[in-house]
């Protein structure tokens, strides 16, 4: 794709070396006939040109009519416009397709073997094009294709926690924000390349700015959050900048959203209240959104953090979250826009885990139809492991979105490898028992145009986009899994590794094994792997908090005392329907990995033949051993991976090992201090222990 100063990630399009494979691809893809009906076809042609040139080792011929006298060709376009598509795809199939769906099919037309990509919308064909290129990049046969693909989830959105104007990224570990608001509406190639990366994995929405749209006015506020001024993006002078970004993303089927501040009518100086039941406020939002749509006719809508961590909200006016969200929903409704209203609230109860449910469960059915409640996967805050939020199963009359964190705030930030696809898969597969039949989280979210999945993004201006090179796998995996939560982890992993590091089996196997071991390792050394959480440093004097170990700081999260460890979360367990509640409430039946999340147990409580304290010690030790093995396996890849990328990851693995030991030693010291029971694991001190 020409000279860039940043990485191509999963769009490297490395040349096919195997002659037979290359020949079979050349036969069908050296000639490409595409429609021109819409800007998306510019994208399709560009991508096919870039991708096929790289993969096939020579430029494809791009046609605007079906080529004659060729061995075969690829056709991309709508059925009604192309005879070659009609030859293999029935009208009823197109009618039945989801708007982002597509068909890739081998077709014979006028005695020529062809491959067609078609869909009900141009966006569908963009996705289909990336799918075909992925098949080539992962060296799959393409001679007899019959693929009908549709996303399982309608809204597939990246949430940027980027603070405009300052260009910082809250919880970002990959440099500054890629969105240069000072220079916009001038565009950068990087915006287009970001759109390419996202469309290639099926993302269809981007929230451009941080949910913290204003510096929270609360005691002890972290300097890292100073100067949050994203609320300004709604001002008319900023809208041409939003429109410029929308013009890039639109061509890739990606809609633009903004995080907005509930108090914006006051912040802008327009009104002296933001009360959702005040007529002037209603009118202000309506006029404000009218102006946004004048600039961006397909604007997706807004994301709102209200009454949470210092952000204003309807509670400031004694109104409910539903009244607040519906105010914005009504103002967006004439434009088909949507409100993603976050359920991340806490502060009024000893155990924050119970609060989102207590705040929102009673509001089920009260939200406007274009309001979606966006719920973090777990009840606390993106910890290495949590049970799923009780809200998922509690809201049958409310549109739902699940919010995941792709950026690794609590899982090692820009240094530790922590492959999160297995974590997300576990979340999606958890049976909420919301209905009589099995109702995993993924089913509650799927197949509804009001539902969706959001991921807090992990890209920045870093040349490799994600800070840690292997963290690209999390962005890739997020998109693929959100498109289809039923995809196997192994499929996603193999796709990413092959497109990123090539298809040498030993490399694929080693990199995959490192990814698979990474989350369990983090769980071991950062939590003891029995359900403890939030033992990270959280004070204000280090900006990169939530990284170093400091279990002494917030005892209420892990419940350590002289008698035992863990938190009695009966209140939280009881928010689940049966039989989940019963399972979590029983020490015997509670899954081991969540034991201390739900129960406070004596240090020497014997569980599965071993005391709790000894299990914690052993897991902390095991986690470090795994990291050492990951480091050694990566070292063994020297020479198989280009030097720059190999060194980059090797350096971070060295750092991860040091930090993992720090975690292990801190947690062991902390546990033994309370329990007064020595560690029996025999792991000895020393330089490389
Ligand atoms: C964007 C946690 C994070 C904050 C984040 C907040 C949220 O508290 O540490 O950085 O703020 O969650 O999700 O709103």
Write the layout of secondary structure elements.
Blueprint: H1 19-29, E1 31-34, H2 40-56, E2 61-63, E3 72-76, H3 83-86, H4 91-95, E4 102-109, E5 112-119, H5 122-137, E6 146-149, E7 155-159, E8 162-163, E9 168-169, H6 189-200, E10 205-207, H7 239-250, E11 255-259, H8 264-267, H9 279-295, E12 301-304, H10 321-332, E13 338-342, H11 355-360, E14 371-376, H12 391-394, E15 399-405, H13 421-429, H14 441-445, E16 452-456, H15 472-483, H16 489-501, H17 505-527, H18 555-558, E17 564-565, H19 570-573, H20 580-585, H21 595-598, E18 601-602, E19 606-607, E20 610-611, H22 612-635, H23 643-675
Parallel strand pairs: 1-2, 1-3, 3-5, 7-10, 7-16, 10-11, 11-12, 12-13, 13-14, 14-15, 15-16
Antiparallel strand pairs: 4-5, 4-6, 8-9, 17-18, 19-20
Helix pairs in contact: 2-5, 9-10, 15-16, 16-17, 17-22, 17-23, 22-23
